[in-house]
C-alpha cells in the first residue's frame, strides 16, 4: 500500500490517495478542496482511481469531490447515516464555509463491515459515529484512516449536528484502538500517529 497525503482546502483536511503499485489502481479519501492538486498527483502517478470514499459528510472533506469525480469517473461512497449531510449544505456546514454551499448525491451507500477491493488491496469500512452519525474509519493493511474521529493527540468535535461525545469515545475505544499498537493512524487533519502513541499520549484515551 502506498499513501499520498494532500492537506486540501482552507481547512487543510487531509485528502489521501491510496494505491497499489501492482496495477496502479487506487482510491481517493476525502477530497476536501484543491482538486487541481489532487488530480495532478493522480496524473503524475498514472493511477486508475476506482472509488472516492468519504469518511463523513462535512464540507471541508467534500469540497473537491465534484471535480475529482469528473476527472476519474469514480463513484462516490459514504455511510448511509451521513447521506443526508452530503445532500444538505446547511447540515454539512459548507453553507457557512468559504467554499460555498456544496450539495452532492452519493453513488454508493456504505454500512459497517463493507469491504471495497481495488487491485490487491482491501478497504474495510468501520462505522465510527460521534463526530457525525455516519462517520467511518477505513482499515487498509496496517493503516487506519480515521477521518475526524481520532487525531494525533486529540479527537473530533462533537458539537456539530448529530455529534455525540459518548458515541465518539465508544467508537475510538471499541473500534479503533483495538488494532495492534503499530497500526498507523491517518487522521482527517494533522500528522499521522500510531495506536501505541495515542494510547500513551492522547489525553482522551487515558485509562
TrEMBL record:
Q: Which GO terms describe its molecular function?
A: hydrolase activity; metal ion binding
Q: Which domain of life is it from?
A: Bacteria
Named cofactor requirement(s): Zn(2+)
Q: Which InterPro entries match?
A: MBL_Glyoxalase_II, Metallo-B-lactamas, RibonucZ/Hydroxyglut_hydro
Q: Report if keyword Metal-binding is assigned.
A: yes
Q: Which UniProt keywords apply?
A: Hydrolase, Metal-binding, Zinc
Which residue range or ranges hold the Metallo-beta-lactamase domain?
12-189
Q: Which Gene3D superfamilies match?
A: Ribonuclease Z/Hydroxyacylglutathione hydrolase-like (3.60.15.10)
Query: What Pfam families does the annotation carry?
Result: Lactamase_B (PF00753)
Q: What is this protein called?
A: Glyoxylase-like metal-dependent hydrolase (Beta-lactamase superfamily II)
Amino acid at each position: 500500500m502506498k499513501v499520498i497525503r494532500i492537506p486540501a482546502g482552507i481547512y487543510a483536511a487531509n485528502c489521501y490517495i491510496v494505491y497499489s503499485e501492482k496495477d496502479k489502481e487506487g482510491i481517493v479519501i476525502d477530497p476536501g478542496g484543491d482538486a487541481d492538486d489532487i488530480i495532478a498527483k493522480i496524473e503524475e502517478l498514472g493511477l486508475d482511481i476506482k472509488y472516492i470514499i468519504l469518511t463523513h459528510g462535512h464540507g471541508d472533506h467534500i469540497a473537491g469531490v465534484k471535480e475529482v469525480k469528473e476527472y476519474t469517473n469514480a463513484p462516490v461512497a459514504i455511510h448511509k447515516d451521513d447521506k443526508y449531510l452530503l445532500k444538505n449544505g446547511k447540515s454539512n456546514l459548507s453553507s457557512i464555509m468559504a467554499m460555498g454551499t456544496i450539495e452532492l448525491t452519493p453513488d454508493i451507500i456504505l454500512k459497517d463491515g463493507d469491504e471495497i477491493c481495488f487491485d490487491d488491496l482491501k478497504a474495510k469500512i468501520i462505522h465510527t459515529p460521534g463526530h457525525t452519525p455516519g462517520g467511518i474509519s477505513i482499515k487498509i493493511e496496517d493503516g487506519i484512516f480515521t477521518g475526524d474521529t481520532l487525531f494525533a493527540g486529540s479527537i473530533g468535535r462533537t458539537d456539530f449536528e448529530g455529534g455525540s461525545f459518548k458515541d465518539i469515545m465508544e467508537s475510538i475505544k471499541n473500534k479503533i484502538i483495538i488494532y495492534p499498537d503499530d497500526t498507523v493512524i491517518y487522521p482527517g487533519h494533522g500528522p499521522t500517529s500510531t495506536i501505541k502513541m495515542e494510547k500513551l499520549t492522547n489525553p482522551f484515551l487515558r485509562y
